[in-house]
Design goal:
The chain is 80% helix and 0% strand. It is mainly alpha-helical and 44 residues long. It has one domain (2-43). The protein contains 2 helices and no strands. The longest helix is centred in the last third of the chain and has 24 residues, at 20-43. It is elongated. Keywords: Membrane, Transmembrane, Transmembrane helix. The chain crosses the membrane at residues 21-43.
Length: 44
C-alpha cells in the first residue's frame, strides 16, 4: 500500500491547483517508478 503514496501525492498537487510541472515531473514520475522498482525487487 505504501507504493501508492506517489499517486496520492500527485492527486493532491493536481486537485489543489498546484503547478503541472510538479505534478508530471516529480509526483507523476515517482508514481510510475516506485511500483516498477517494487515489481523488479519482488521478481528478483
Amino acid at each position: 500500500m505504501v507504493v501508492y503514496g506517489g499517486v496520492g501525492d500527485a492527486l493532491i498537487v493536481l486537485r489543489s491547483n498546484g503547478p503541472e510541472a510538479a505534478f508530471y515531473g516529480i509526483h507523476g514520475a515517482t508514481a510510475v517508478v516506485v511500483p516498477a522498482i517494487s515489481v523488479l525487487l519482488l521478481v528478483a
